[in-house]
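Hi,

I'm pasting everything inline rather than attaching a file, because the server keeps stripping attachments. The sequence lines come first, and each chain or strand is labelled.
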Amino acid sequence: MRRSRIKRALSARFYARPAEVVARELLGCVLISTVGALRTAGRIVETEAYVGPHDPASHAAERIGRTARNEAMYGVPGIAYIYRIYGVHWCLNAVTDARDYPAAVLIRALEPIEGLEVMRRRRHNPARALHDRELCSGPGRLAAALALDGTLDRHHLDQPPLWIERGAPVAEADIAATSRIGITRAADWPLRFHVRGSAWVSRR
DNA sequence: GGTCGGATCATCT
DNA sequence: GATGATCCGACCG
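And the predicted assembly:
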């Protein structure tokens, strides 16, 4: 029994374009999770594009090729690629471009808009009070806040328990393009995008 | 304010 | 056996 598609969700067609284009247009869109029957949602304010096999920073760079981990990146546009980083955190990507062409957009930060209490509980730190700005400002943080993990790898992002809807578009002039974070190869490629002036991004 | 290192493990050499 | 699309706390100034 297959779960039905959310009518307002972005369709595969949206994702079937170059990762850089999708990364820009995902800004302002709304990511919604109903994992664990608890609804949490946030507006996407920061993304990074991993544009293809020629991108040395990509998990599916030419020198690596197709492996069990990056299999989702070769799948149809509009599915999730979720992987574990540093043995500790989960990171969510939206797969873009064409099937068999590995490219994806890393969702790096959200402005929380729904389920803040649930997020606070999931991100709770007994040692220290957490500011709302810390809830979803980073790929590992937002994955924890929305309860995302590897079981959602290759999930279609147009149906529960995880999907993306169109939001208020962000004007070109309000999008900043900078170098990607935490990578060593192709560190100067300006493929990180964030909403200029947003208080919710991981770094300014 | 900034910088540094530990956590922790799947993946790939 | 080394590495990493991160986060957090410790320490320094």
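Residues 92 and 152 of chain A are 9 Å apart (CA to CA).

If the labels don't parse on your end, tell me and I'll reformat.
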